[in-house]
Amino acid sequence: MSAPALYKYAIWAPDYADEECLARRLSVRERHLANAKKLTEDGILKIGGAMIQDGSQLTDQPKMQGSLMVYEAASLDDVWKIIKEDVYYTGRVWDKDRLEITPFKAA
User: Fold this and answer.
1) Which residues constitute the domain of residue 77?
2) What is the pLDDT of residues 54-68, one digit of tens each?
3) Which of 34, 47, 65, 88 is the most buried (most CB within 10 A)?
C-alpha cells in the first residue's frame, strides 16, 4: 500500500492582542518548542517561527506577535488537529478567530 499524498499548508497564527498574551506565550514556550521539534523530526513542520512586531527586531527582546509555519500533511483536517493540540492554541496565545490555514504550493 502506498503512502497517502502529502500537501503543504501555510499557517498564520496571530497572537491575541491583550497585554497578558506575551506572558502566556513565554510561560508555555518550552513545551511549544519541544512539540515543534518533534513535528520537524516527523517531517510535518517544514519551517516555523515567530512573527516580530515591526521595528522591535532591532531590540534585545523583540515583541512576538504571532507564528508563521508551513506543515506537510495529508489533509486540512490533519493540520487543524495538530494546531488544536498545540499549547499556544490551548493556552490562549494564538487568536483562534484570526488563525488562518491555507493550502500552499512551493515554487
Assistant:
1) 7-104
2) 766 666 677 889 999
3) 88
